[in-house]
Amino acid sequence: MSSCTTCNKSASEVPLKRCAKCQITEYCSRDCQKQDWKTHKKTCGKPDQPGAGGRQFASSTPSSQSSSHPPRDANPFIQLNQGSWLHGRPEKEVYGLLIDTFRLRADDQYKFEGDAEGDGVYGGASDSIKPFRRFLKKVESKPGLLPAWWNPEKTKACIQLGSSASGWSSLRSAVGKSDIIEHYGDSFLPMQMRMFGESMYGNTPGATSGAGGMMQQLMMAASGGGMMANHLDLSGDSDS
């Protein structure tokens, strides 16, 4: 009979939920899951783990919509510093970037800290629409981060995109750093998403402030040196 990995309570005693990432290890509560995280994270979702791959990911097939980017002369790190990273983009692209910034932060929070919102996919829910609504409210509370055309109707449209049952932007699916790089074809985009999230929350899961990395990028841009190597990525995770 199945039992909680941490406290060994059986399924007949308490309801059990599987880890949202590997869909294998079972726990009776968030407290037990967090208590076991330091051990579980060493094997969670590894390719050689029996049954690994149960986590639902969005399709990473690139699309013409997802591959659009700001003009090449617009340095995204300068835009982040100015709070204009989402400005000047098509509406659907802004919606997609907001969804993926939220999903990457949720993945980082789970991967590096073993924490998850109970009403999101990492907490066992069927989708992450409720926590995404809270994320959008956080973005909307910061003056200037969203384009001037943003209004309540755009909020609804963004949530509607994430509410789809399938497709890349579905909030029923989780994505990580490597998925985003593959989908957009941009190895620097996860860093930008993490910095955008940090501008709202003041931190990046599993890492200290990214202000140092931001300043180095800005200095390189000012000196005409272009982009720096991806080792500056805030998480320090080189392969995920």
Please explain how this structure is put together.
By secondary structure, the chain is mostly helical. It folds into two domains: about 1-55, no CATH class; about 75-230, no CATH class. It contains eight helices and two strands; from the N terminus they run E-E-H-H-H-H-H-H-H-H. It has a two-stranded antiparallel ribbon with strand order 1-2. A hairpin with a 7-residue loop joins strand 1 and strand 2 (about 25). Helix 3 crosses helix 7 (about 190-200). The longest helix is centred in the middle third of the chain and has 23 residues, at about 90-115. The chain is elongated, with a radius of gyration of 19 Å. The two termini are about 35 Å apart. Residues about 50-55, about 60-75 and about 225-235 have low confidence and may be disordered.
Integer average pLDDT = 78
In which order are the strands of the major sheet placed? 1-2
Strand tally: 2
Distance between the termini: 33 Å
The string of secondary-structure elements, in order, is EEHHHHHHHH
Query: What would you report as the Rg, rounded to the nearest angstrom?
Result: 19 Å
Structural class: mainly alpha
Fraction in beta strands:
under 5%
Structural domain tally: 2
Low-confidence stretches: 49-57, 59-73, 225-236
What is the overall silhouette? elongated
Number of helices: 8
Helix fraction bin: 40-55%
Profile the largest sheet.
2 strands, antiparallel
Could you outline the blueprint of secondary structure elements for this entry?
Blueprint: E1 17-18, E2 26-27, H1 30-40, H2 76-82, H3 91-113, H4 129-140, H5 152-162, H6 177-184, H7 189-201, H8 211-222
Antiparallel strand pairs: 1-2
Helix pairs in contact: 3-5, 3-7
